[in-house]
Each structure stands twice: as C-alpha cells, then as structure tokens.
Amino acid sequence: MFTTSSCTVNVTAGIAITSRNQPTMTLQQLRDFIAVIEHGGFRSAARGLGVSQGGLTKSIAKLEQEYGVAIIDRQAKGLSLTPDGQAFLSLSRATVAEADRAARWLAQAGTKASPSISLGVSIDPSLYLAPAVLADFRRTHPNVALHIHQSASTDLLRQLRDNCLDVAVIRLPRDFSASDLDTRVIYDGRTAIIARAGHPAAAATSVHALMACDWVIVGDALNPNVQDASLIELFDEAGLGRPRIAACTSSLFDAVSVLMQSDCVARLPASVLAHSLLRGKLVAIPVQEGQGRYDIAIVCKESRHQSAEVRRLCAMLISYARAGARAGAQVAATA
User: Fold this and answer.
1) CB-based contacts of 253: which residues, under 8 Å, 6+ apart?
2) In the chain, what are the helix, strand and coil shares in percent, each to the nearest 5?
3) Reported pTM
C-alpha cells in the first residue's frame, strides 16, 4: 500500500484498489525505518537526515500502530530489530531501491538519457563469457551504459533480490531453488585445484597430499561457510577433517595475488588458467578428487520488469554460451 497525492492505493494480489479505511504506508516511512537501522538509532538517523528525532519516532511508530506489527525493539541499552523487523528491512530496501529505479527511469525518459544495465557476474562467466559478449553488445548498443559487478554468487543473489541488479550470470549454488527468481542454465563449468607454477605440491595426485596446505576461498566474505561448502565436502569425502583456510575474499584478483606470491592453493574455475594474464603463472594440481562440475545460469528477479536492452543482452549471453558449447563438442570429437 502506498499513498499518492489523491488517494490510498492498496496493492493486493497484483490488483490495485483504492480505499480510505486501510492503513497507509509511504516510501518516506520506509526510508525513515532504513535510516534508523543503518545509523544505529533515532538520534543519529535524525542528524543524518536533517530532521527532528520526534518526527522520525512518530513516523515509525505510526507504521507499527497502523499495521499492528512491532519492527523495532526499543530498550534502554539501544534498539534492535524484531524477527518481523528483520524480514521487513529486506522488503523495505528492495521497495525503496525499486522506487528509486522507477524515478531514474522517469528522469531518463524526460531527458532522453541513455539506458543502463546493472549486470552481476561470478568468477567463471566473468572470465569465459562476459568479455566477448560485452564487447559485441557495446558495438550493437553503443548508447547503453553497462555497470558490471563481479562478486560471489550469494552476494549477487542478494543484490538481485534487493533490486540492485537487473540480471546476473552466476555459478548456481548447490541444490539451488528459488521461486522468486527466473533461472536459465546456459552452460556447465568445471573446477580445478590451482596453485602457482613451481608449487611444492604441483605434482600431487590426491587431496591427501594437500592436507598441510593453506587454502584461499573466493566467495562471500559475509558468509564464508556457504562458499567453502564444496571444499569442506571434498575433505570430508577423503576423511581428512577440515581444510586450513588462510583467507576468504570476494575478489578473484586478491585470490590470484595470494596464490602467485605464496604456497596457498585454491579450488577455482578451471577457466582461470586460460586467462592471458595468468597463463603459465598458475597451474592445475592434478588431484582427481578436486575436479567437479557446476551450472552457470542467467538469473533475473521474476517480479522485475526487464527492459528491451536487458532482454537483448540475455539473448546474446545464451547465444554465445551455445556457440561455445558447440565449439567445445567439436574439439572433443576430433581429439
């Protein structure tokens, strides 16, 4: 439900109806709520927004009273989110982000500004697919501004749900399922255990020989346990307990830098080895247990309207992935 200048609009099951008896919710209340949480209190939020603390308190209190839901737990030692408030915070951020996107769209339409696409990519597609596709897309759509975000899959999924991204091309997490996202698998990738050229364990053929190694994980630094699941599973299957984790980073560049300057090892997409800047500097350790396959998919938010430019970019990504798969099959057939 949102308040317009003339009436209250209550959105139920996708149908907009008007009512003067239903509780009202404004975007400003959502912004006030987000500000209070991000600033850590009403006083700090009021200073940051340049408004009175009393007005901010009333804004959120009215929201709670009208809907009969407590979203902030106020105590002498400070405030915290209630379980309902935690869930509502994610919804509030997504709603405000989408409203801001709508405002930007109107501003662009009024000024004929160039359209833009926010694209998220995880490691494998950022190396294998994105460079060629984006180069061709820029040639055919020179007026479209591309904003590319490279991060871990879990982080990109969060950004999709928060309406910070239009589309993402990611490695799907194990047992991935989400009814709020539209997912299309476009190719499969493979992993390798990677280290610097000349690594003492470069000729190892079993993960048992890597027990004493320090490992670098490329994943979501906020949720390291999610990203190291496949590595832990690898050690568990070999009956080796837990690997020694030296660092967790969301940056492939940081991980590669550590690998090249130390004896750390990492389980990464095999496509890393084919990059022109890394070829010959990093090697795959021929550990049979370390090889694995995974799905790369285009993921969009079901409820988010996609522009013609986003749909065209997705079509090009699919086309290039299919062409790469056919080329790979032909190479395998003649090998």
Assistant:
1) none
2) 45, 25, 30
3) 0.63
Element (H, E) at 171: strand 167-171
Contact 192, 234 (CB under 8 A): no
Question: Tens digits of per-residue pLDDT, 255-284?
Answer: 899 999 999 999 888 889 988 888 899 999
Distance between CA atoms of 247 and 284, rounded to whole angstroms?
19
DSSP 175-193: T---TTEEEEEEEEEEEEE
Strand extents, DSSP E, 180-306? 181-196, 214-218, 244-249, 266-269, 282-285, 292-301
Between CA 166 and CA 186 the distance in angstroms is 18
CA distance 249 to 232: 17
Radius of gyration for the alpha carbons in the chain, expressed in angstroms and rounded: 24
% of the chain beyond a pLDDT of 70: 84
Instruction: Enumerate domains of the chain plus CATH numbers.
Output: 2-110 (1.10.10.10), 114-187+295-334 (3.40.190.10), 189-293 (3.40.190.10)
- Looking up tokens 């992935």, which residue turns up? 321
The Cα 2–Cα 100 span in angstroms is 14
Could you tell me the two tokens for 151? 């991060």
